[in-house]
């Protein structure tokens, strides 16, 4: 049998490559979803991972870190939050 | 609520109703501004045995970036628990409600902290400065700058 392909549609899925806790501890929405202010997940609403390995939606974490009361600490372990370089 | 964190409070409410921690129950949560949460101390601490206490949580639009305002409220048959860190007007001196707040805390985790603060207490007394504090206390406990001086109780 000979088949001729007229047309094909590619479909793919994606997933942030971060296995720990599946939801952002700040907004409680899945990492693969968005922070409360974004509409589209993915590169528009990225994750941020600290040297302490704790991850959040970047926008959620920045809301926290810009408050004075955060004292620059990770919400999970209360160590100074430094973005992991790798 | 600005910032769209109502979704998170909605999830918290579902969790509190569907998978409640032992001794913690929602008495009233009709909106995302004020919730009343009832707590019981589960061990047989004689100071609190058989009693139910009521916590009031008040959420600003900045929750959970900012801590909720949490205090005990009295009602018919419901007293303010006696504890060296709980004032007779219901204000609670507990670091997670102030400088120790983190946005990963939840209503449930705060209620559990307070529950264990009661469970571990063996002093049937009010804070030493209760009368003075209550006479001049701001309406919101968040406007008090508590000094967390004693972690042993």
UniProtKB/TrEMBL annotation, chain A:
Keyword tags: Cell cycle, Cell division, Metal-binding, Mitosis, Ubl conjugation pathway, Zinc, Zinc-finger
Leader peptide range in chain numbering: none
Entry-linked InterPro entries: RING-box_E3_Ubiquitin_Ligase, RING-H2_APC11, Znf_RING, Znf_RING/FYVE/PHD
Residues of the RING-type domain: 35-78
PROSITE patterns attached to this UniProt entry: ZF_RING_2 (PS50089)
Identification of the protein by name: Anaphase-promoting complex subunit 11
Protein species of origin: Myxozyma melibiosi
UniProtKB/TrEMBL annotation, chain B:
UniProt KW ATP-binding keyword: yes
Positions of the UBC core domain: 4-153
Gene3D superfamilies: Ubiquitin Conjugating Enzyme
InterPro entries, per the entry: Ub_conjugating_enzyme, UBC, UBQ-conjugating_enzyme/RWD
SUPFAM superfamilies: UBC-like
Entry keyword set: ATP-binding, Nucleotide-binding, Ubl conjugation pathway
PANTHER family: UBIQUITIN-CONJUGATING ENZYME E2 (PTHR24067)
Protein name: Ubiquitin-conjugating enzyme/RWD-like protein
